[in-house]
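REQUEST FORM: STRUCTURE PREDICTION
Request ID: SP-0412
Submitted by: Lab K.M.
Chain count: 1
Length (residues): 411
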Amino acid sequence: MSQPSASFVDGVAAVVEEKIVLKSDLNQMANMMAIQQRIDPDKDFDKYINLRVAVLRSMVDQKILLEMAEEDTTIEAAEKEVDQALEQQIETILQQAGGKAAAEKMLGQSINSFRSEFWFDMRDKIVSEKYQQKMLAKIKVSKKDVLSFFKTYKDSLPFFPTEAKIRHILIKPEPSDSIKKETLSFLNKIKDQITKGDDFGALAEKHSMDPGSKKKGGDLGWVKRGSLLKNFEEVAFTIKPKSVSDPIKTEVGYHILEVLERKGNKARVRHLLISPQTSKKDEEFAFSFALSLRDSISTVDVFKSFAKKHSKDYQTSEIGGDLGWVVPSTYPIKEIGQAIGLIDLKECSPPINTSFGFHLLWLEKIKSGGKPNLDSHWPKIEMMALNNKKMNWYENWLKDVKHKFYVRIFD
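STATUS: Completed
RESULT:
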């Protein structure tokens, strides 16, 4: 028979010295973890109960850490830090639950209620984690420790994937000037319609090319400063609320937007996006331009300067197109992952065609994968040895320190 999590009667789940863990707090935390691990209490109650037991054990351990942290005046959590961590947690819950309604159903309360109730739990979580990190920072591994770890676990260590350090320059096909002018004219006509009384949402649902917000009348919900495309954000936080902007150009096309509400660093925004379409001729021009750049690149320094000047990937252009270390076999842009195995070290690749445009790649270094060995994978094995030592030390420390406190579990 189905037994929803709300069936637990509130009360005290555990006590650590003078600190208590309420069953309602335990349920709240267990429900949040269930969302993250995609466990539905109505469909898999036994699995949920096991999760709840583990969560309670973790909450008791956290109370012990808090008792210890209170004696350390260097450990604190600023209000702004707690607010930011809480908002990130809520965003994660909403994404993993698949929306606000599903999240509120699993949590058993509204998001606003969760936000106010969980604030203090988040503060305690940050304080306890900081104290734990401070202790674990003292743990180091010697060469002897690494050799001993490898000898003990070498047969059970996973195979390491091949890794590559790469840079890229993204050249996007640009629509012709005539298409851009048509797009701007169309958006200005829509703005005029809205100004004369037509419904923004209905027009966005009909014309917008943003699949994520189109069906919601262009509504993006509450957005934070720093999370939007630069030009879009600048208008979103300066335009007068309830007015419609002029067309705004961003990396994804042209928008008109309306700010429905604004509170500090947050704004509730809706928009209508039109992305000018490129022609075959535009694509051929972009390919030819990428090819001409490739012919001029002879060193990594030239590649970096070209990335800064020409790349349309604005997140990496300022750092020379650096994508860091990637695993080719699992890289999200599969064409790039496949190309890495075919291009030469320290040479510019031919243009690689993806849905984003044409990429020029520079392969700087390769880390071979395969069965772990000390010659090729020392840094990785050293980190695994360190984490293992930290985990063992922490478990032993917690077992010893528990005896210093009054702990009782009722749940």
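NOTES: The first strand starts at residue 12 and ends at 16.
Reviewed by: T.R.
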